[in-house]
Amino acid sequence: MTMALAHQVSIPIDPADIDFMGHVNNASYLKWVQEAVLSHWQSNAPVEAVAGHLWVALKHEITYRKPAFLDDQVIATVILEKVHGASAFYETIIRRGEDVLAEVKSRWCCLDATTRRPARLTRSVIERFFGIEEQTC
């Protein structure tokens, strides 16, 4: 497959995100990653795929690089690395300007919205995330 399309999401920092040390609590990064990955899905998948599928996180591996503070302008860049079966593997980089604040590798499971059972995406849906358009004759 070709290189995945990056998706950027502006992350608002809420006062509730700030911990006793005056910077963003580590748990807030998980919330940001979930919001960014779901935004990526909703922005690229066809409406019927969004309506027919749900996503649940299976695993997050976070490397924290620098702290974030209340007035920071933070951007999450999401890249779908691969899809295997009902699993999607993502990389999310959280930045303040050029500074990398955190790097997150995550694995998500696609569920059928009705049955709540794992579901595979069609090739045409997956290809949309890699900038491959359907061929028409």
Automatic annotation (TrEMBL):
A molecular function GO annotation: fatty acyl-CoA hydrolase activity
PANTHER family found in the cross-reference section: 4-HYDROXYBENZOYL-COA THIOESTERASE FAMILY MEMBER, NOVEL THIOESTERASE SUPERFAMILY DOMAIN AND SAPOSIN A-TYPE DOMAIN CONTAINING PROTEIN (0610012H03RIK)
This protein's name: Acyl-CoA thioester hydrolase
UniProt keyword annotation of Hydrolase present: yes
Keywords from the named record: Hydrolase
Gene3D superfamilies, A to Z: Hotdog Thioesterase
InterPro entries reported for this sequence: 4-hydroxybenzoyl-CoA_TE, HotDog_dom_sf
One Pfam family hit: 4HBT_2
